[in-house]
Amino acid sequence: MTTIYEVEHLHQPGGWLSPGYVEVGDEGVIGSVSAAKPAGRPVERLRGFGVPGLSNLHSHAFQRALAGRTEFVTATRSEDNLWTWRKEMYRLVDRLTPEAYEAIAALVYLEMLQFGMTAVCEFHYVHHLSGGHAHANAAEMSDRLIAAADRTGLGLTLLPVLYAHGGIGKPVEETQKRFVHSVEDYLTLIDTLRGRRAAHPNLRVGLALHSLRAVTPDEARAALAGMDAMDPAARLHIHVSETTHEVAEVKAGLGARPVQWLLDNLGLDDRWCLVHATHLDAAEIAGAAASGAVAGICPLTEATMGDGFFALPEYHGAGGAWGIGTDSHYSTSIAEELRILECGKRLELRRRNVIARPDGGAPVHSGRVLFDTALAGGEQASGRGGGALVAGRRADLVMLDPVSHVLLGHGPDTVLDAWILGGTQNPVRDVMVAGRWVIRDGRHPDEEAIRAAYRTAAATLFD
Ligand SMILES: [Zn+2]
What we know:
Elements: E1 3-12, E2 15-17, E3 20-24, E4 30-34, E5 44-52, E6 54-59, H1 82-95, H2 98-114, E7 117-124, H3 140-152, E8 155-162, H4 183-194, E9 203-205, E10 207-209, H5 217-230, E11 236-240, H6 244-254, H7 258-265, E12 272-276, H8 282-291, E13 294-297, H9 299-305, H10 312-317, E14 321-324, H11 334-349, H12 366-382, E15 397-400, H13 415-421, E16 428-433, E17 436-439, H14 447-461
Parallel strand pairs: 1-5, 6-7, 7-8, 8-9, 8-10, 10-11, 11-12, 12-13, 13-14
Antiparallel strand pairs: 1-2, 1-3, 3-4, 5-15, 15-16, 16-17
Helix pairs in contact: 2-3, 2-14, 4-5, 12-13
The site of zinc ion has 6 residues, from loops.
């Protein structure tokens, strides 16, 4: 059985259909899209604006529990930055149980759905018990993330992280022992998780190198070769150039800036997601953009950490792919993340409409460019087969409510500007992931229980 939806306004690559008819099959894939009502078939009407679900390209789900808990200074921590924040994050890691990991992930995955994200790339590095001892089930913590994704209905591209060193030439700290694998054990974990896919159709598995600080060139090459043998199309993620400290350490240790080193030594292509990519010089911007890799910008997290600001006009202008991640989850709102990116640049450059550039005579809308670029980047980084409401793609459909205050009176030409740049109310009403409704009228059926489990977890972690 297939279902046909009549969507009042349907987002399409390069435009809208008003209305658009979308046929969704049982397997969660779009069978057809047309402007004409299919003859002799019943349709379900959906009022408002139907847009594709966005893939969030970077998440550390457990860090959601730290949001709002590190916003103060003390006499011993008057200078606060990413590295002092990391000490607080490690205190949380030291207390994190599998139950808490799942409870926090379920809450943040629910939040992502409620803001219109239909998948997440989870950069997962808390693998073991404290002291580095393996769980009885070596994939215990990964399985907790899979359970949280199943419970909420969010698509999951799981990226187990290879982490081996506490810095270039440095042993790991005590807390970091929870993160460490040999390359061999790491590839075994990936193989195990690939085996989970048969029972979890919304699961994809990719590879992540924590950073060039935490993995040697030989370890990186061995892990990539092992992944390539299992799945040559797998997505490959790495933290890169988040801070100037990291750039200096890699330059001193490996002889080149991080992105330049990757370009010269591992070769970047469209399987790669360069997470943060904040501090790039002109040659790195040109090289990374031309490689086809996607830059994984995490605007509110990077702002909260005081990392620095992505070179949006330069990277976008060079034709570079980029998308957004919510990383430490200071926000899970697509609108907030894209707004700080565009408006932060407006403040810096003292002009309006930074990302949109004229193209012939018709107006080019900033909201549309921001959303469509982040949509394509998220799809590329997650490798899910979604990212557009066209035949053959995953049926990830987000309905925006036309009576939400931010969208009142808007039509298709300006609706994305209104959502992304025009107000604060969340207009996401219904969310479909792979053909199945998981949010209706803003609500998830398991919401109360997910909140209760999170509250219990937070109480034990911060008592
Ligand atoms: Zn990260």
